[in-house]
Amino acid sequence: MGFSEEQVIEVLASVFSSHDPRLILGIGDDAALVQGSHQQILTTDIAVAGVHFRTDWSSAYEIGRRIAAANIADVLSMNGRCDYLLVATTLTGNESIDWIRDLAQGIQDQASDAGAVIVGGDLARSQTLSIAITAIGNTAAPIRRSGAAVGDSIYLSSLTGWSAAGLEILSKGLSTSGAAAARALNEYRAPTLNMKIDFSAATSMSDVSDAVLIQGAQMAKASHVKFEIQCEAIESVPEFAELAALATEIGGNVHDWILQGGEDHALLATGVNLPGLLIGTVVEGSGITVMRNGQEIKMAPVSWSHF
Amino acid sequence: MGFSEEQVIEVLASVFSSHDPRLILGIGDDAALVQGSHQQILTTDIAVAGVHFRTDWSSAYEIGRRIAAANIADVLSMNGRCDYLLVATTLTGNESIDWIRDLAQGIQDQASDAGAVIVGGDLARSQTLSIAITAIGNTAAPIRRSGAAVGDSIYLSSLTGWSAAGLEILSKGLSTSGAAAARALNEYRAPTLNMKIDFSAATSMSDVSDAVLIQGAQMAKASHVKFEIQCEAIESVPEFAELAALATEIGGNVHDWILQGGEDHALLATGVNLPGLLIGTVVEGSGITVMRNGQEIKMAPVSWSHF
Q1: Is the ipTM of this complex over 0.85?
Q2: Do residues A70 and A132 lie in contact, with contact meaning Cβ atoms separated by under 8 Å?
Q3: Nearest chain B CA: its distance from A245 CA (Å)
Q4: Residue A303: what pLDDT?
């Protein structure tokens, strides 16, 4: 082994140390003690090496940021603020102590950006590297998937597709240059959460961890309405041209990236006069369709299953 | 694969379904929504097949109970009550849907016994089966490891050593009969948490997940005192004779089981006139010693490290 358990715990305790006033008792006792809040958001995600991330595609720091982002996004998508994270990690023993420190720093920096404190964790040995994060947040006014109403518009907090573009570059082993490719790679490796968008007036909301068409279909089903996505609206988003040019350059499909790609962790919301990018309309019916010139476009069905 | 992801989620949602009034919004949205409390206890544990449990030694139901018990015990040891659990599982794909259902039922039953609700989870594929549980509890008066005072007595909520005895039976591949062996196997496979003991007046407390000598040493260090464990006191515990007879029968060391065995999840507490089993005294000094007739007994050093 390149390290002892004590060394790892010392590194984690040092990276995760906090004097946040919400934290009454941090790492070192049987459990952490924190200030609670009236209405809480709870969510957990587990990421496995080779499935959710690849250590040859992403640095430890990027992996840390990415996994924490996925968790925090679930809290944001309930119209919440993230308070606390707990991190349970399995290590193979082949990691270096520096790699572990960088992973912790990535989680810590993403948590800090969201105003969250890492209050505890666990460590175990396994043949497979994995990181399970639990996020605890609070909200005064939760927004569910089920509130979309006919006549609402559909919005994204930012243009999706960048992460899928980055994945395509990595999967094809392309060596790319240019700002668009760099952004795509970065969004795949360490997604940016839009912490500033104000979707508090949304009627329904979800984070786009799978794909706009999957998450939108779930929201439409929960709300007993139909989502119509308008291609023209997406194509009028300022940065669409940049992503489309990258798709042309590397032989990708920009509409697939935007609508069927995953892991952008943008927020998908419905409502009236919301900020963000307008991409469609809520109508009567069921399901989700993509429209151009008032006609439905067929997209290849998309799904993601672990088994 | 023996199952689809949808099947597993359906099974888990069915086993974990709850109408508990604290649960505002359960499984199905981006995150769960629950009633919070003023002062909260947060803890997470990850258990890995082959490290923390063996599927050939324990049934899926027992594994579920065992892992949930380990987590809940950390909440109890802070003088807390457990409210919510989140369960993140990695499956290899070789499990049967019945095995997964039994695992979930074990977690669910242990949670129910503690008054806790399972509010969320995640599922991923991995080469290694693992289960990460996060527990969220509340307490009006937390008890830390650091409050032991000279003159306090030392108590156990129940006699430790049964789990270590069960582990020894399984490790040696013994075929045993009799009530003591059956209890030992059961305590290893699905530990019983003593939910009724009232340690709310304790000055310090921890759960014995590693060993009395390890956890006691940590409490002594945090409290700047010395723990003296008295053999005579332990040997006068009514069920000591039964455990000692089992040790004789299978060639084990009963004192090692009680003081150096792990995973009993009994509570170790200090204070004055507490209920439970009196096993020693807090004195001036540092460290932890085992005494007989006023003389220190040397025990083999014990430690548990994953790496």
Answers
A1: yes
A2: no
A3: 33
A4: 57
